[in-house]
């Protein structure tokens, strides 16, 4: 790769130390003076010290790449607006909002701080207006790109992985990011009918026009997709130029989506007894508590729509994420019960905090040991040191990057399946759920948690490809709570990159170390030629291509699910989430560090342990993300009783 990567970790050798080997026995016998004796002792001590350092060094399996940010604005918020915080350096537990993780820069990674930037944003007015093409024209209509370049033609199925990859990816996304839109009364943009008015308010100014011959929305006489711009820091009394988006969730992988990123939410979700989270019991099973506003009226009929509550507000967006949030509520309470049984004298607070620490650690382990190798492949895992032990470095900004949350990590949207299945104990499908009917409406999860887990583990995922499934691009939402309206996730993903001023594809391609391109045809090293031809029809220059459009078109590389320009941003982000987090599960020497016995027990836990602890599933494969046919390969699915959770080290 190119020279923008630095810090190749070099194994320590004797040549690194001029001190080793500088002494000789013959000199000692000739001179016999005290000073020399002392220097020999000193040398021996130094050699012993160096040996100590060598053997205590964390195992570095390979060199570690790092993406160098060239942005100039990463410190702006911290210098101008970050609150003054006093930290307790001896605290064993993370704060609720993630502050005080980095003791020199206590706001780094905290909720309500900006996304990190690899490159400065690009706005046509330098503040907030969408980037223009090199010839001064507006960027191509995002919906038109979806309907032409990214038309869903392929139906390939992933034979290695099942559908569980999708809700897990979304679960960790909602741990690390939430960028609210400028909506008046809803977290979901589709609710804002007023954007179709003749003089729409400012939050509607980036809506996506729909052409009358749009195959889906044209027939419904829709003229726009109601895309909303994101809330910027000025809403929090911090005016920054260019416009800067603050993350509402803590940037760390700390399961803030389960516990909340602010104290008010965290307290609302607690039972304050036995360290437990508040829950609802329905039919002998625990579910997340419900928001009373989930009951909606349609005409004169009252329709019950379940609205679960958790640490992240997007819990109800689709069935997959609602499932995982409920599973994690149960997992917290399972661990808390076990700890309280083993330690009857522990207070509610101790049980809660110890459980929270365990749940976050297991989430990190599943993500790095099981999920990321599937997404990024071994080569990226090794190159970016994602398999290595954590080497906490307080100079690393641990925050989610704007290029990641509004770009690269959304690539997983292309494996969202069109339908979810519920399966009975004998693994026959008894219900098929479509996204259009279940958006913001997770009602059918009640009573079907086991059925849904069986359906997810038993169904092959969608192969990564340069398109989204048809249903997710053409959702006519059938939920009275949000009115009937349309939505196209891929168009939103393209438009979101423009909203936050992501630099064009070729710039980030360069940052990722790929050769410079001077023409569309130079893209042929990573983008198929028929797609390059289509790009020529939409963009005036190769340097105008949207980042998201470019990375979605790149061929997969090096065992990753994605091409080089997406994979490099994902890999570097996970490098920073790990090595910039003082509370990461295997960081040593901190007040909150786990003992090595505890780490061993944590490392033994997998997603299958969590599923067995929280459901009535009978059997499951050891790697829950892999597709194992239940009927033919039952032997590869051990009984749930074998997935024991051992907390004796606590
Ligand atoms: C059925 C599954 C999913 C649906 C329906 C869905 C839908 C959405 C929607 C509507 C948005 C906001 C779009 C915008 O206005 O910019 C979004 C954002 C996002 N999604 Fe998904 N998503 C799903 C699964 C996933 C998965 C599997 C990932 C994997 C990593 C993911 C990653 C993201 C990211 C990173 C964002 C931006 C988060 C933020 O900054 O707030 N999503 N998704
Ligand atoms: Ca978090």
From TrEMBL:
Positions that bind heme b = 413
Is-annotated flag, keyword Hydrolase?
Answer: no
Q: Which InterPro entries match?
A: Haem_peroxidase_animal, Haem_peroxidase_sf, Haem_peroxidase_sf_animal
Q: Name one GO cellular component term.
A: extracellular region
Q: Domain of life of the organism in this record?
A: Eukaryota
**Keywords of this protein's UniProt record, alphabetized?**
Glycoprotein, Heme, Iron, Membrane, Metal-binding, Oxidoreductase, Peroxidase, Secreted, Signal, Transmembrane, Transmembrane helix
Annotated GO MF terms: heme binding; metal ion binding; peroxidase activity
Localization, UniProt: Secreted
Any one GO BP annotation for this protein: response to oxidative stress
Q: Which CDD domains match?
A: peroxinectin_like
Q: Which residues form a coiled coil?
A: none
Nucleus found in the keyword field: no
The membrane spanning regions, by residue number, are 34-55
Protein name per Swiss-Prot or TrEMBL: Peroxidase
Give the organism the record lists: Aphis gossypii (Cotton aphid)
């Amino acid at each position: 790769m190119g020279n923008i990567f630095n810090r190749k970790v070099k194994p320590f050798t004797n040549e690194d130390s001029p001190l080793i080997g500088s002494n000789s026995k013959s000199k000692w016998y000739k001179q016999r003076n005290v000073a020399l004796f002392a220097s020999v002792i000193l040398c021996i001590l130094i050699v012993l010290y160096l040996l100590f350092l060598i053997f205590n060094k964390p195992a570095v399996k390979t060199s570690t790449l790092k993406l160098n940010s060239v942005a100039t604005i990463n410190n702006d918020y911290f210098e101008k607006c970050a609150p003054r915080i006093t930290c307790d350096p001896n605290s064993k537990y993370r704060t609720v909002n993630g502050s005080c993780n980095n003791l020199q820069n206590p706001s780094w990674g905290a909720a309500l701080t900006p996304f990190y930037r690899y490159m400065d944003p690009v706005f046509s007015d330098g503040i907030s207006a969408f980037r223009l093409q090199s010839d001064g024209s507006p960027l191509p209509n995002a919906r038109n790109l979806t309907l032409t370049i990214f038309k869903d033609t392929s139906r390939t199925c992933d034979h290695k992985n099942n559908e569980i990859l999708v809700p897990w990816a979304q679960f960790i996304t909602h741990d690390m990011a939430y960028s609210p839109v400028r909506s008046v009364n809803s977290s979901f943009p589709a609710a804002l009918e007023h954007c179709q008015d003749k003089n729409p308010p400012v939050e509607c100014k980036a809506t996506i026009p729909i052409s009358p011959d749009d195959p889906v929305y044209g027939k419904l006489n829709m003229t726009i997709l109601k895309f909303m711009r994101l809330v910027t820091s000025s809403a929090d009394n911090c005016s920054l130029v260019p416009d800067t988006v603050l993350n509402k969730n803590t940037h760390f992988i700390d399961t803030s989506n389960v516990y909340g990123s602010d104290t008010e939410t965290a307290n609302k979700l607690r039972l304050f007894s036995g360290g437990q989270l508040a829950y609802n019991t329905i039919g002998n099973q625990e579910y997340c508590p419900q928001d009373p506003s989930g009951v909606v009226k349609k005409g004169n009929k009252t329709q019950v729509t379940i609205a679960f509550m958790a640490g992240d507000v997007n819990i109800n967006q689709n069935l997959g994420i609602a499932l995982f949030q409920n599973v994690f509520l149960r997992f917290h309470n399972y661990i808390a019960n076990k700890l309280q049984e083993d330690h009857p004298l522990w207070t509610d607070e101790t049980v809660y905090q110890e459980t929270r620490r365990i749940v976050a650690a297991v989430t990190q382990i599943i993500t790095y040991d099981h999920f990321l190798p599937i997404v990024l492949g071994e080569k990226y895992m090794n190159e970016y040191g994602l398999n290595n032990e954590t080497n906490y470095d307080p100079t690393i900004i641990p925050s989610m990057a704007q290029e990641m949350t509004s770009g690269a990590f959304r690539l997983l949207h292309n494996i969202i399946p069109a339908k979810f299945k519920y399966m009975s104990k004998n693994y026959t499908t008894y219900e098929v759920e479509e996204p259009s009917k279940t958006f913001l409406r997770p009602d059918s999860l009640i009573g079907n948690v086991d059925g849904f887990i069986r359906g997810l583990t038993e169904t092959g995922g969608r192969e990564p490809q340069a398109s989204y499934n048809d249903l997710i691009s053409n959702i006519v939402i059938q939920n009275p709570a949000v009115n009937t309206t349309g939505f196209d996730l891929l168009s939103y993903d393209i438009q979101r990159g423009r909203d936050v001023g992501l630099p064009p594809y070729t710039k980030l391609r360069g940052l990722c170390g790929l050769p410079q391109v001077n023409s569309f045809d130079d893209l042929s090293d990573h983008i198929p030629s028929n797609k390059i031809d289509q790009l020529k029809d939409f963009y005036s220059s190769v340097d105008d291509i949207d980042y998201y459009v470019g990375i979605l078109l790149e061929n997969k590389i090096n065992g990753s699910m994605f091409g080089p320009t997406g994979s490099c941003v994902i890999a570097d982000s996970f490098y920073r989430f790990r090595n910039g987090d003082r509370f990461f599960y295997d960081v040593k020497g901190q007040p909150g560090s786990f003992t090595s016995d505890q780490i061993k027990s944590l490392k033994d836990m997998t997603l299958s342990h969590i599923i067995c602890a929280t459901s009535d599933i009978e059997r499951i494969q050891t790697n829950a993300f892999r597709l194992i046919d239940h009927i033919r390969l039952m032997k590869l699915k051990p009984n749930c009783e074998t997935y024991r959770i051992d907390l004796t080290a606590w």
